[in-house]
Specification:
53% helix; 2 strands; single chain; mainly alpha; globular; two-stranded parallel ribbon
Length: 92
């Protein structure tokens, strides 16, 4: 994966809206290399700015949660927290 593809990955992650998820395949297609799914996964796993660049929003193309350095239970919690917070903001 090239530097420009890493940049594309992080831009994709930054522009995912709260409560939106995407898959590794979605990102690979978005950067123009559908076969780069493993490279996208690897680059996403190296994200050192997970507070700013929301790597937890990337899920498997089948909709299931996939690897997360903080543990799948934390990934699930973060996604649910965002959904709950998003609904709360809409209701205020």
């Amino acid at each position: 994966m090239t530097l420009s593809n890493h940049t594309s990955l992080f831009i994709f992650l930054i522009y995912l809206k709260n409560v939106e998820t995407g898959s590794y395949k979605d990102i690979a297609v978005a950067i123009g290399n559908e076969k780069a799914i493993r490279a996208v996964s690897s680059a996403n796993g190296k994200n050192k700015l997970s507070i700013v660049i929301p790597c937890h929003r990337i899920i498997g193309s089948n909709g299931k949660l996939t690897g997360y350095a903080g543990g799948l239970w934390r990934k699930e919690w973060l996604l649910e927290h965002e959904r709950t917070a998003g609904r709360s903001l809409l209701n205020d």
